[in-house]
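New to this. Explain the following:
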Amino acid sequence: MGLFDHLKFNGDGLIPAIIQDQRSGRVLMMAWMNRASIEKTIETGRTWFWSRSRQKYWMKGESSGHVQVVKEVAFDCDGDTLLLQVEQTGAACHEGYQSCFFRSVAGGGAEVRVTEGRLVDPAQAYGKK
């Protein structure tokens, strides 16, 4: 049985992918993949995703240069979530942080704290004003 025989995609043909820094174990981001983006990721060794909002494929780092080199692709016991271990160049988060999970809940939910420093100004990384 091949990879796609084990995977369970949702009704839109998507599966969540957790992206983890291979060296540190830190979760960097979560994104959606479909069969074509998984195939492209395996073929190129770079992460490719499906953007639900833009309805298009995108490669992590295509505009910022903050690419992810894929080191391992795994899936959970139910076959409904992927885990990609990567070597991250620069910020994984489009807001300029190492991880998209740069905020933590505090004070019993009454507060939200930024837990790391910004690595890059998103306006410079993505050419946005």
